[in-house]
Amino acid sequence: MKTSSYSPHYVKLRAWLKERRTLSSLTLREVASMIGTHFTSVGKMEQERKKIELVEFVKYCQAMNADPHEGLEIIIQSIAEQKRTTKI
Prior knowledge:
- This protein is mostly helical.
- The protein has a single domain (8-87), classed as 434 Repressor (Amino-terminal Domain).
- The chain has five helices and no strands.
- α2 (28-35) crosses α3 (39-46).
- The chain is elongated and about 45 Å long.
- The mean pLDDT is 90.
- Residues 17-72 form the HTH cro/C1-type domain.
- This is Helix-turn-helix domain-containing protein.
- InterPro entries: Cro/C1-type_HTH, Lambda_DNA-bd_dom_sf.
């Protein structure tokens, strides 16, 4: 199965990441500094211009005091929804 970092599953994950960052009142620069990357990498990740790497995702979540399991659950639910709609 070929997956894409631009799939609807990643769109939902990116929206969740951006929402969590906004709720945490953190800027792109602040998150980038916390995870040891350039702020443009964080921006590109949120804007579907960069693949979300697993370790980077966990660090991103930790910087915002967000549970990475929540983000993974979003992907799991999205995949389940897709399976249900394609069976109909």
